[in-house]
Design goal:
The protein is an alpha+beta fold. Helix content is about 20%, strand content about 35%.
């Protein structure tokens, strides 16, 4: 009898491309874990997060990043956060619950999302063509996060630095999402 072994692979084959003033790459080793806060337990959840990771509980629409820059918490709603961090193995959920213990309902979301990093001097111009939210530095600050759509595809956008963003979209439409961002970059230059 044949032996089969499943192996993970990047949704976009580790895509990375430099344009004139813009870099676009797949973050194929990024783990994403959803953290749902039980009803009425926001204060306790915030205390657990601060104790385990040394970061304050972010407000909705904001992020908090650990001192070592390895884990970022995205506050997407009143009772939901995402933890995003580099984690090459399939036990991302256990890594988070091992740190936080009980107090959150966790779900590994890594395979649900494709993650792209967009950076460079024309990154904002490229995003403005397809992103309906105001990305001006005074409106969408470093560390801000928002749910939006780009070319009719649901997207989560995180501003890491003035000209550096993480974009998350559904893995089922990864190719279409990449095409939309690439096309916008090309049309901007």
């Amino acid at each position: 009898m044949s032996e089969y072994k499943l192996e993970t692979s990047a949704l976009l084959d580790g895509y990375s491309r430099e344009f004139n003033g813009v870099a676009l790459r797949e973050l194929d080793d990024l783990a994403i874990v959803s953290l749902a806060i039980p009803l009425g337990a926001e204060k306790q959840a915030g205390q657990r997060l601060e104790k385990a990771y040394g970061v304050p509980f972010p407000e909705v629409g904001k992020t908090a990043v650990t001192k070592d820059q390895k884990t970022r918490f995205l506050r997407l709603g009143q009772d939901q956060l995402f933890a995003i961090f580099t984690h090459p193995s399939a036990d991302a959920q256990q890594a988070i619950t091992g740190q936080l213990g009980q107090g959150f309902y966790t779900t590994d979301q890594t395979d649900v999302w494709v993650a792209l990093e967009l950076s460079g001097e024309n990154a904002v111009r490229a995003l403005e063509r397809i992103c309906p939210i105001d990305l001006h530095q005074t409106a969408f600050l470093n560390g801000d996060v928002a749910r939006t759509s780009m070319e009719h595809l649901g997207t989560i956008i995180v501003r890491i630095e003035t000209e550096r963003f993480i974009l998350l979209s559904a893995s089922s439409s990864a190719g279409s999402f990449l095409h939309a961002v690439e096309t916008s970059i090309i049309n901007t230059l």
